[in-house]
Design a protein that fits this description.
This protein is of the alpha/beta class and about 425 residues long. Helices cover about 45% and strands about 10% of the residues. The structure holds nicotinamide-adenine-dinucleotide (NAD).
Length: about 425
Amino acid sequence: MAPRLAAHGARRALLAVSTTCAHPWLAAARRPPSLAARALSCPSEPGARAASSSSSSSSSPASSSSASAATSVAFVGLGNMGLPMALNLLRKGRCDIVAVDLSDSSVARLQAEAAALAALPQTTPAAPAPPRVVRASTPRAALEEHPGVSAVVTMLPATRHARDVYEDERDGVLAGLEARRRRRSGSGGPPPAQSSVLLCDCSTVSPSFSRALAARVPPPHLLVDAPVSGGTPAARAGALTFMVGGSAAACAAASPLLAIMGSRAVRCGGNGAGHAAKVANNLALAVQYAGTCEALALGARCGVDPLLLSRDVFAASSADSWTVRAYSPVPGAVPGSPAYDGGYVAGFGAPLMVKDLALALELAEEVGAPAPLARAARALYERVVAAARERGADPRRVDFSRVYVDVYGGGGGGGGGGGGGGETRHG
Ligand code: NAD
């Protein structure tokens, strides 16, 4: 798929391809877009060669279990979003994956997919080997024991998880890069040039964490923040939008990788700018979503059918929005939305929305921006989480769109925890 790169500032040249950077992923970006995905595992890339030859010349413990291709991706965090993203790297990108997650089941799922790909008949005798999935116990092990890894993708719930994964002194990503460096310089003779590893954090986390992390990533390694929009359906379809922060060279290097998992990548600025854009986006979504629910509930109290109001009035007038067209809270309004069958099953869990609004408030305080609506919206989504707990449901499985039920009474009046909508699905 061609990476659709969008604008950053006046230069409409997002993720422009630098000719001076020799990153393995970047060489893929120079090829015609349709080849970008296949080029990810190309053994002729200079950086990939370096990684692969260091693997065979060192006493790497990876020899029997490491992923097979010269370039492979370490993927950390295989949850609702990470698993479908990694599946796309495997199926569409033909990338070898070194999987790291706390749960066995997602890793097993990826491995089953790799086995299914391997079982397909070869189209030509010279066809490349099918991609492989191996598990690593920690992010450090993924880098230290698998020298072919030239990119790390992380998809973790919150800042504290990302901090652990990148910065844990013993087991983190930075410790893995350092272990690689030591392995190279300790192999006798002049140390071979280090190949660059691309670090790509797709989680929604604090921009200041990302900026501080960037200052600790040693050259020639590169870091981008690339949080996503589009939810689990877009993750499955490989149609995510990425909001990218990092140096021009790092963003260009990330472009082919992002093109496998998404349909659009927008460079927003330097490190942390992607996360800031994502937090701003979700603040706008949270406020606009709750506002639409409030308006629907008002109309309903006045006797106007909420289904008609959402589908036939708002969607065709100045209240039109993504909310009413793609994600209406009214059961029966939008097929495929969590509200459609009245279930409100996440989707985008209410606690993640609360976390994103807390990030917005943190950020607003940091930069002195007024944020009265962020505070009000956070209180509303906190009520969705509290209501889930009260009825013994797992809040992570309750979609944020249930704010319509838990705060506004599902348009039927009342509010404050009552209303219909999926009690049985959540239990
Ligand atoms: P999730 O909770 O489903 O998955 C997180 C995964 O990370 C889990 O599999 C967990 O085991 C793993 N994990 C946690 N700590 C770890 C560690 N130290 N080492 C290894 N693995 C670890 O979350 P999700 O819904 O996939 O969301 C991930 C991120 O994407 C969040 O920041 C969220 O805000 C953002 N996001 C989610 C959606 C959505 O629709 N779900 C949409 C856009 C953005």
